[in-house]
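To illustrate the input format used throughout this study, we show a single complete record. The first block contains the structure-token representation of the backbone; no residue identities are included at this stage. The design step must infer an amino acid for every position from geometry alone.
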């Protein structure tokens, strides 16, 4: 399975869990809202029931006060309640329309109250107003208002109170059930939400851990393989059978290692061939040159004084050319061998190296060589650094054109590398030749004027490039020249 598929699968699983959690939470929240709505409705039923019962009680109290005192002020709450009761009965009936038992009780209360109002209270009030002891047919058997109030009226009111009590008991019971359901819904919602959240987090973390561990382990393996490649260990191969994107990368690394190994083996074979060729060419070329040199000397020895001066000059010129040719061969071989041999690094005291180099060069007495600054001690390839200094100083000596000369050597520390400068007060170099002088076989003067192969500065540049440094020249005609090159503090092959 591809990594992208695994990642997508993990994302889908987590999304599915979150979606399921959202749906369940939505449904549970609907239950909570429904139960909350029922509780709110129950509170409204209780308030309406209490208000209705209070209004009926107010009517009874007002009627009783009026019958006892004859004061019309007692009838004000009676009259107001009588106006509001039809609406209050209708509202309460609508609120409990889902409860048949409560609906029947409200209907019964309404009927009793209607009977109480029309056949009991209202006739008594009218009778009280007329001060007539004869009342309507419904109460003819009773002798006075007190008997009616204490008997028939009390029975009706008590029955209504009993019905209200039963009504409220049912409502309290329903309310408690809904409250229990609400509490249960809230607990269930919290529990399910918590479980699904923990599950989604666990699945997400587990999947992320699995993916990251799988990827990290394989990436570490590939990094080690890349390090092996950088260290020249090309035979080690990565075994990866996952058949995903990283598997393709592992295969590419294996192919790259195999290709590099094959290329290096081919390059080493060609280098060996080149070394053999260089050795054969140098040997085969030097042998005839030595023969020509010897032949010219033999001619001079055999003919002696009988040899014309012009012929003697030709023979000297011939030997000069032979020596130049031999130097060219040696220079080309030295240039070709840079970086191909074993480069042993060691701790080098640059000042001691310069003093040794100056001593080996044996500069003419009219040219002074001085070291202007403190020289560092570095860990590098001693032979390479010595060859750079040797070629630059010998060039300054070779091309010097004044009766007295001065060659100065200095050093500057530039964080990651050292900057060395070799300055002379010789003829200088025109700006247009500043780049050409580092090309092999390029010389600024006729070869017969100054013996030169044109390889020295090319060797210098190749060595410095090999060490990751740079070399520049600052010069004007007649004002000397300064060659500045950088040399790393640590050399990594």
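Output of the design step:
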């Amino acid at each position: 399975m591809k990594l992208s598929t695994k990642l997508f699968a993990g994302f889908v699983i987590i999304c599915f869990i979150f979606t399921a959690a959202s749906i369940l939470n939505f449904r549970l929240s609907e239950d909570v809202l429904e139960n909350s709505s029922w509780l709110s409705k129950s509170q409204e039923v209780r308030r309406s029931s209490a208000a209705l019962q209070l209004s009926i009680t107010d009517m009874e109290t007002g009627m009783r006060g009026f019958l006892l005192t004859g004061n019309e002020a007692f009838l004000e709450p009676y009259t107001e309640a009588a106006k509001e009761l039809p609406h209050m009965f209708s509202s309460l009936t609508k609120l409990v329309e889902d409860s048949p038992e409560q609906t029947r009780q409200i209907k019964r209360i309404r009927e009793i109250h209607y009977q109480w109002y029309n056949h009991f209270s209202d006739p008594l009030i009218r009778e009280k107003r007329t001060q007539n002891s004869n009342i309507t047919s419904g109460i003819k058997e009773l002798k006075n208002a007190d008997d009616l109030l204490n008997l028939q009226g009390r029975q009706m009111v008590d029955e209504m109170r009993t019905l209200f009590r039963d009504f409220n008991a049912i409502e309290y019971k329903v309310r408690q059930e809904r409250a229990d359901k609400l509490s249960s819904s809230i607990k269930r919602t919290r529990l399910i939400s918590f479980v699904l959240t923990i599950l989604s987090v666990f699945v997400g973390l587990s999947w992320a851990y699995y993916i990251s561990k799988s990827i990290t382990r394989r990436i570490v393996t590939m990094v080690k393989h890349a390090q092996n490649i950088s260290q020249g260990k090309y035979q080690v191969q990565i075994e990866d059978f996952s058949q995903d994107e990283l598997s393709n990368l592992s295969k590419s690394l294996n192919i790259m290692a195999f290709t590099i190994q094959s290329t290096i083996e081919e390059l080493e074979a060609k280098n060996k061939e080149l070394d053999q060729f260089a050795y054969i060419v140098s040997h085969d070329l030097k042998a005839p040159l030595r023969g020509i040199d010897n032949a010219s000397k033999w001619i001079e020895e055999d003919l002696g004084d009988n040899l014309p001066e012009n012929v003697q000059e030709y023979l000297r010129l011939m030997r000069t050319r032979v020596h130049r040719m031999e130097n060219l061969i040696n220079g080309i071989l030295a240039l070709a061998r840079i970086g191909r041999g074993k480069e042993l690094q060691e701790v080098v005291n640059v000042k001691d190296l310069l003093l040794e180099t100056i001593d080996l060069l044996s500069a003419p007495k009219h040219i002074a060589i001085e070291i202007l600054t403190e020289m560092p001690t570095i860990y590098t390839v001693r032979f390479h650094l010595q060859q750079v200094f040797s070629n630059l100083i010998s060039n300054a000596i070779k091309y010097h054109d004044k009766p007295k000369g001065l060659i100065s050597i200095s050093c500057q520390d530039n964080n990651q590398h050292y900057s060395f400068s070799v300055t002379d007060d010789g003829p200088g170099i025109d700006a247009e030749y500043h780049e050409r002088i580092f090309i092999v076989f390029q010389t600024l003067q006729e070869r017969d004027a100054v013996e030169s192969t044109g390889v020295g500065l090319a060797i210098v540049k190749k060595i410095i490039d090999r060490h990751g440094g740079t070399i520049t020249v600052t010069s004007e005609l007649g004002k000397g020249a300064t060659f500045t090159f950088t040399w790393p503090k640590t050399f990594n092959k």
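Structural context for interpreting the output: Strands lie at 345-349, 367-371, 377-381, 405-414, 417-424, 471-475, 481-488. The radius of gyration is 59 Å.
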